[in-house]
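Anyone? Bumping this.
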Amino acid sequence: MSTILIHLEKEITKTKHQFLQGGGEMGELTREYDWANTPIGEPDKWPQSLRTTVAMILNSKFPMFLWWGEDLIQFYNDAYRPSLGNEGKHPTALGQKGKDCWPEIWAVIYPLIKQVRETGEATWSEDQLIPIYRNGKLEDVYWTFGYSPIRGETEEIEGVLVVCNETTEKVQNNQKLEQSEKRFQNLIREATVGIVVLTGQDMVVEVVNESYGKLIDRKPEELIGKKLFEIIPETGPYFRKMMEGVRDTGKPVFLYDHPYFVYSKGEKIEGYLNIIYQPYREEDGRTTGVMALCHDVTEQVLSKNRLQISEERTKSLVESAPFPIGVYIGKDMVIELANQAILDVWGKGNDVIGKKYSDILPELENQKIFDQLESVYTTGMPFHAKNQRVDLVVDNKMRIYYFNYSFTPLYNSHGDIYGVMNTAADVTDLVKIKTQLEKSEDNLKNTILQAPVAMCRLRGANHLVEIANIRMLELWGKTGEEIINKPLFEGLPEAKDQGFEAMLDNVYQNGATEIAQAVPVTLPRNGTLEVVYVNFVYEAYHEPDGSVSGIMVVASDVTAQVIAKNKIEEVVAKRTKELADTNSDLQRSNAELAQFAYIASHDLQEPLRKISTYTQMLENQLENIDDKSRNYFNKITSASSRMNKLIRDVLTYSELVRENDVFEKVDLNKIADAITNDFELLIEQKQAVIKYHDLPVIEAIPLQMSQLFSNMLSNALKFSKPGVKPVITISSKQLSSNEVKLIPDLDPKKLYYKIVFKDNGIGFRSEHGEQIFNIFQRLHRKSEYEGTGIGLAMCKKIAKNHNGDVNADGTSDKGAIFNIILPATHVSIKK
Amino acid sequence: MPYHHLLLIDDDDDDQEIFLTALEKVSKSVKCTTFNNAKEALEALINKEVEPDVIFLDLNMPLMNGQQFLMEIKKIDSLKKIPVIIFSTSSHSGTIELTKELGAHDFITKPDKFDDLINILKPLIN
């Protein structure tokens, strides 16, 4: 044994530790190391087992490490070297005591070392985490390693050989893979996007997450392994086809804002989805199913819809706004929006949208508008114009308008100007009114000066004469210098205290209007004061704001007219009095006449009666008288009888005037009945026929109606044709309003009846139609037809008493027609 | 009731004569006193110088007319019961009404014919 050792020592010395040949960097370091200062001493003295082991380590390409001896002195090879990293334990680990080298993991590895030394059993650890200090820091390092016992000459376990492989990279890769797998699972599980993978012809759910479950109100457990379209068959018709298409063609499909609905527990769930259908490929590239990614965009779609509605509302609001609104985009001012009001202003149609503002309104070229728009667009400074004149071509004609308008810049979300909004208000009318107002002030002054009546305008509370025309100055009796620009009563003191101050103050203070006609006023005329008569109007002069700033006075001198009028009134009054006197005289004389007729006829009756009576007494006295004498007596009797009748008729006629009888309802049929009855004897004697029916009931004086019918009938019977049986008809008819109008004295508003007495007697010549109604008028000799000539006059009087009329229509030998017109109601009776 | 003592007041002598002549033809026994002045007649009646059982009164008379006489006599108790028959030329209805209202017993219009007067008086006397 010792011989061999000596031999080896010699060899080592000779070759500098021959057994440590090779081994790269670690071989070199091991050879150079000062082993003498270590517990294991010079390599020459090492036991054979150590030598052999170290030689094996150094020459192995497999990472190896060795702890030797009680102190666990360390050896390692080049293959192991990288595991120590840079700026770490290399190269100090060589020859170092294990305990000193690995303080950070000693607690982990020492038990293993101890175990191997004590039991002699090798260990095997795979992908064990053994963090070590290297590369300037403590690193997690994974190892697959085995600890093997190395026995010495004494069969005692002298060292522990570590054959190891750093698997950090592999482990980390695995970890990453796992993590990524895990993440993927999590991703799927926790994804807010609904994910489902369907495989096979039956579309069986292979993978599904909560989010997908939520979309269809199911739990993933309910879905896994099931045929999806058996669970939600209602989606089949559309979505299944779509997915089969993806599965069969291998082409993905994208759906956006797509509506869907499912039924769950009897309720309909609906919403909108963004869906991606991806073919699901196996590792070998076969498409076996479809993966669906469903993103619930219901809220977004709804809010988009709401936004759209609100946008549409806004648009419609703008569209229907009563004032013009336009939006122009870009430097070219392309019209994006123009509401009806602005189109109306432009006189254009909807086709302006999308066109350039300058193309649509070329007439604005020299009106600075384009410059204003450009300035707003480039500077972002809004532009406002007031009462700005703008000439626009509307209906092919250049017209003048006035606008208040604004150009406001429009900014996009980046804060850049992308357009200009134009709002406007058409104030043409207002401006025109203002212009007219100014014009009208001038016109007013001219009007005053040129007015054909006296006019002036007073200003302020003291009624300063601001302007007055010549006529007004003439009326005042003043010159312009005397009164213009002076308070009225200072310039015209003569007009003071005649009541005008109060009227003017009332107009000025209360905005009232004072109108006066033919007012007497004392004014200077040719150096003296004269009363003149004036018509005038004081009208408040209003400023545009409504306040009263003065008074317009319009006046005219009506002195001449007033004097003329007074004269006329005087004459009229005198004439009226005369007329009244005459009337009253006439009435008196009428009454006197009637009285006279009455008295006269009354007094005339007396001597007549006596003549008659005494004649009879004489006749009685003379017992025997001859025929001739008797004839004389008869003549006297006859004459006095006739005289008596005349007097009685005159009396009756005169009584018609005095009559104050009451109007009553009179049935003319009954009057006719009574009169025919009175004339019974005569009718029988003459074999006359009297016809009447349906005569009206009217308001009349009954006695006078009897008199009228009596006279008419007696007349008709009297003037019958000899040898002809009299036929007398009494008919009636309501007068039409036109017929009423033709008769002068009738009231066109009243209802009138025409009572017609028609006979077949001797008639009369038509020229006598008027005459026959005159009193005492006779057309025949007394011996032919007896009568007094009063009967028809009486009829006329009666008709007139009733506010009616009579007329006659006759032809000689052809009978007569008498028309009596009577009102249905008495005119003085008020209902 | 036939009358025995008549008083005729009429200013017209002719009418008095005609009346008396007619009366004589009707009755020889009847007494008739005549006045041509109503005022005198009234005095005579008041003084009971004459006591007729009927008075025939003309209306149209001077000094006191028939109506006035009628009113006066109706004021005197001893006289107001004597019937007064108006004997007038008038046949006017208004006049007739008025005298009836004043208390006249009857109204006779003086007839044109002598025979008619006889026929009127007959029933009053006999």
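Late reply, but here is one note on the structure posted above: Residues 10-14 of chain A have pLDDT under 50 and may be disordered.
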